Amino acid sequence: MPEIKIINPDTLGKPLGQYSQITRVKASEYVFIAGQVGVDINGKLTGDGGFDAQCVQTFKNIEAALTSVGAGWGNIVQFTTYLVHSQDVPRFMQYRLREFPKMFANGAYPPNTLLMIDRLVQEHLLVEVQAVAAL
Predict the structure, then answer these.
(1) Is 19 contained in some domain?
(2) For the whole model, what pTM was predicted?
(3) Distance CA 127, CA 14 (A)
(4) Is 16 inside a domain boundary?
(5) What is the CATH number of the domain that holds 51?
(6) What is the pLDDT along the chain (135 residues), one digit of tens a residue?
(7) Total of domains in the chain
(8) Rg of the chain over all Cα atoms, to the nearest angstrom
């Protein structure tokens, strides 16, 4: 089992959202999950194609990747998030406020870097999340 410590040291400012400043990990193996987007197993855009539906599917895809290697949300040590529109930042934060307490029941949220980019691999995609897990 990995030893994962999520830390917010007093020497750094309080996180601006549902994330922590540092993850300290002792593990025998790491899993790097490619950026996931809001398409289902058949490559079809989910729901109405809006940001919220894409966000839900993106995290479902990450969960499927974790499950495929015998891991779960507690194994996540870092996220990198890419958004196409800055107007979606509040929606992303609301998703995290609603869902992260279910995913990370201990309240220790992994570090997350949030980047605004011009576009993703396909024009209609609005959010992509890459993850690193420790086993």
Answers:
(1) no
(2) 0.93
(3) 25
(4) no
(5) 3.30.1330.40
(6) 899 999 999 999 999 988 999 999 999 999 999 999 999 999 999 989 899 999 999 999 999 999 999 999 999 999 999 999 999 999 999 999 999 999 999 999 999 999 999 999 999 999 999 999 999
(7) 1
(8) 15
